[in-house]
Amino acid sequence: MRLWFAVVALAAAGKLAAQNPRVLMDTDRGPILVELDQTRAPNTVNNFLSYVEDGTYNSTLLHRVVPNFVVQGGGFRENGAAIVRRAAIASERNNGLLNTPGTIAMALSGSPPNVNSATTDFFINTGTNASLNPNFTVFGRMVFGTKTLADINALTIIGGTEQPIRIPFVRRMARVAPGEFPILPLHTGAWFDPANSGKGFLLEVARVDGVEGNPQMLVAWYDFHEGRQIWMNGIASFPFGASSVEVPMQISTGGQFGAAFNPNQVTTNTGWGRITIRFTSCDAGTFTYTSSFGNGTVPVRSLTLPTNEACAANKVP
Predict the structure, then answer these.
(1) pTM of the model
(2) Which of 183, 204, 270, 299 has the most crowded Cβ, counting Cβ within 10 A?
């Protein structure tokens, strides 16, 4: 009987975790993805999400870095102006979540700290900070971005302060669907189906030059059909923080390489099909398609990464 209850408890915990919202932080040092604990810190999570959704955290500084202790943000805009705060919220400390490396918690004001003073300021623990547990509310954990956080933690600090010489900043934050992994620039590159050699995808996550807006997914898909190599391509925009994007695909046929190329022989079918790009991590995903050649799902793995991007080093153990 006790074993049955244990199984039920584990299943319930897994279901609750799958319902927890996620937030993508796009910092100038790399991405950080955090999962918020809606069950054990509901008011704190809702407060944080309200600032995420109204854009408060966009173009803000990670103004405080104490090596192997915390990285703190949410207090100042990129130009140094203080963030406009709403009323403070009641503490949800002692909820069972601890200030351990990679967890996110709300900062407080006062000395000793006023436990009911949390507004916008947050911090990510870079050390095991048991001394903070009695007062500071932990409300989530990092699920991707280990290298990013380590790079920020290692920044050179101005002597006698807690301010980095070159202050990192958050370009923007966005909600991510519970349990999902967002589309990131590091997904740019070559992807392949391990079970089918000679078939693959070239992806680019980009934006229109000089335009601030939603990113775009460019797809080139190479495959075989009836013994011949075929190429399809498409482009679609998607909201920042989205975990999937549907791309309309076209196919062109009839062209020949070299001196025999005649553009008049090329025919294009712009309604060939659609493909939904979805990633389950930084280096794996599933691409589902419907087309005039059939329907299906392709499990894919990454083959290349953009220069200076990191996947394995950013994964949370």
Answers:
(1) 0.90
(2) 183
Are the C-beta atoms of residues 142 and 33 closer than 8 Å to each other? yes
Sheet holding 30-36, edge to edge: 60-61, 169-176, 22-27, 30-36, 138-144, 103-106, 122-125, 70-73, 64-66
Contacts of residue 114, Cβ cutoff 8 Å, sequence gap at least 6: 108
Q: What would the two tokens of residue 67 be? A: 């090596």
CA–CA separation, 257 vs 220, rounded Å? 18
Q: What is the pLDDT of residues 76-101, one digit of tens each?
A: 999 999 999 999 999 999 999 999 99
In sequence order, what are the residues at sequence separation of 6 or more whose Cβ sits closer than 8 angstroms to the Cβ of residue 235? 216, 217, 218, 219, 247
- Report d(CA 238, CA 276) in Å as an integer: 12
